[in-house]
Amino acid sequence: MKVLGIYGSPRKGGNTDQLLDKVLEGAQSAGAEVRRVYVRDLNLCGCIECGGCDKTGQCVVKDDMQQVYPLLDWAQVIFLASPIFFYGVTAQAKALIDRSQAHWSRRLLEKTQEERALRSRGRGYLITVGATRGKNLFEGPILTAKYFYDALDMSYEGGIFFRSLEKKNAVEENPETLQEAFTLGLKAATP
Questions:
Q1: Contact (CB, 8 A) for 127 and 157
Q2: Predicted local confidence at residue 137, as pLDDT
Q3: What is the CATH number of domain 2-189?
Q4: Cβ partners under 8 Å of residue 115, min gap 6
Q5: Cα→Cα distances 95→113, 147, 171, 183, Å
Q6: Where are the domains of the chain?
Q7: Angle at alpha carbon of residue 71, lines to 31 and 142, rounded to 5°
Q8: What are 86-113's pLDDT values in tens digits?
Q9: Average pLDDT of the segment spanning 56-76
Q10: How far apart are CA 160 and CA 181, in angstroms?
Q11: Cβ of 184: how many Cβ atoms within 10 Å?
């Protein structure tokens, strides 16, 4: 199993990083080959809506996203991790997601409507942490993740969502969250 972890937090070593580390540890324990993308270390812009990918399925903007596209194609399972910023994913994660428009364009060029409905290339999961207890805290990120994975021709399989975790190492005070993360990775990578 080929597993990709996308670290969407601008804060190194924070709660979402620690949770994704545990998820990937679980996947590796199931025998998965794991790769990582730290969005905070990339130099990339958002989609500029130039239409350059419409005819080829390839993004024409030359930045660090060109290193990410092959990993998105390689992965059978993708975990996207992001803290909640104003009821959404971080700007860094959203830029990467928006740049997946090229994958959506490629799907439109290469697959029929019936083939696109199958989402046959793999599975995607979301890992997110929010400081507040808001009723709708995860609705925006879930919708964003669903459409991100749809663009990648993957099914959205849910994930893990934690409220009221704000300080940098809050997950360390809640070992059950780390165990839940490990278990998610293990299950997702088990054939």
A1: no
A2: 93
A3: 3.40.50.360
A4: none
A5: 27, 14, 26, 29
A6: 2-189
A7: 85
A8: 999 999 999 999 999 999 999 988 988 8
A9: 96
A10: 7
A11: 22
User: What single letter denotes the amino acid at residue 94?
Assistant: K
pTM: 0.95
Q: Is the pLDDT of residue 165 over 80?
A: no
The predicted-structure confidence for 14-54, as pLDDT tens digits, reads as follows 999 999 999 999 999 999 999 999 999 999 999 999 999 99
C-alpha 163/C-alpha 180 separation (Å) is 14
Please report where in the chains the tokens 């812009």 appear, as a residue.
45
